[in-house]
From TrEMBL:
Protein source organism: Iodidimonas nitroreducens
Ranges of residues in domain AMP-dependent synthetase/ligase: 41-303
Signal peptide per UniProt: none
Designated name of the protein: AMP-dependent synthetase/ligase domain-containing protein
Pfam families on file: AMP-binding (PF00501)
UniProt entry keywords in alphabetical sequence: Ligase
Length: 307
């Protein structure tokens, strides 16, 4: 006779975590608190294989992601709950755009940048994405990826976004002209810098009308989907899992309960973490990125597939 199984919760500390006992009311308010608390600290750095690097502060991420939120909602006219895709390795643009999508009350879906055009196309169609932020390294497969999708707006990203001008221009020239690693985009697109400029203009116009970031997500609730995370597809086509804001906040709260006290006790004020896991996976975005940000950690991004 087999031994009766014990309930799973018996192995956890009493009252260790309750589903309603979250660190924030929603993702937008958590991000706002993070940006305000650590404004002057370095938030993200990207270091390329040639040693070139650039850094954005928490205040930079706050400002740029807010511009992206208004670009998507007010300039493009996307509605609450619409889906926006990012297909990119870990570069400085990724957290800026990802947090802009979430702050706008939209749904984020991250696409593996090494996907074939057919694989990326399936995710774009299946998720119903209406806008795509895509790394320029794979611009020659873009048109095929977009066939049959609902995407009407394409914004191109670069590994040197937010790098100082001389360094950015030099590296871009080498990648584009000498190494021939950046092909011509085979579909109309605008650069991230243009989207940011349009977003700032939309944000200023909204401010004059008395509207702010909170108004962009007024129709969204904590149990609404925030991310469509696609599985690895090891047993067939990749499948989209709907992840709510509550799911993400629960993960961050759980991580804080298990490691937060230790991390806070060990703080010296200049903590740095290396994030190798890809941000298109929700664990890297929620724990490797957002949970680290709550601690004011300086996150160094490894731009896979160029580690």
């Amino acid at each position: 006779m087999s031994t009766p199984r014990q309930p799973w919760h018996q192995f956890y500390e009493p009252d260790a975590f309750h589903p309603d006992d979250l660190l924030a009311d929603n993702l937008a308010s958590m991000l706002a608190d993070i940006f305000a608390t650590h404004a002057a600290n370095p938030a993200y750095s990207c270091i390329l294989p040639n040693g070139a690097r650039a850094t954005l502060s928490y205040a930079d991420i706050d400002r740029y992601s807010a511009a992206i939120a208004f670009y998507l909602r007010d300039h493009l006219g996307l509605a609450p709950g619409d889906v926006v895709a990012i297909q990119s390795p870990n570069i400085l643009s990724y957290p800026v755009v990802a947090y802009g999508i979430l702050r706008a009350g939209l749904i984020l879906t991250g696409i593996n940048p090494l996907y074939t055009a057919a694989e990326a196309g399936f995710q774009l169609r299946d998720s119903g994405a209406k806008a795509l932020f895509v790394i320029d390294l794979f611009g020659d497969r873009l048109q095929k990826s977009l066939e049959g999708s609902a995407v009407r707006h394409v914004i191109r990203l670069s590994v040197v976004d937010f790098f100082p001008a001389p360094k950015r221009l030099l590296i871009d020239f080498v990648l584009r002209r000498i190494q021939k690693r950046i092909p011509p985009m085979d579909h109309p697109s605008i650069p991230l810098a243009r989207a940011l400029k349009l977003g700032r203009a939309a944000q200023m116009k909204a401010a004059k009308a008395g509207r702010g970031l909170a108004d962009l997500r007024a129709e969204r609730a904590i149990d609404d989907s925030a991310i469509y995370q696609y599985t690895g597809g090891t047993t067939g086509r990749s499948k989209g899992a709907e992840i709510t804001e509550r799911n993400i906040l629960s993960n961050i709260t759980q991580q804080d309960r298990f490691t937060g006290d230790h991390l806070r006790a060990a703080r010296r004020g200049d903590e740095t973490s290396l994030l190798v896991l890809p941000l298109y996976h929700v664990y890297a975005l929620a724990i490797g990125s957002m949970h680290a940000m709550r601690m004011g950690t300086h996150v160094v991004l490894a731009p896979i597939p160029d580690p």
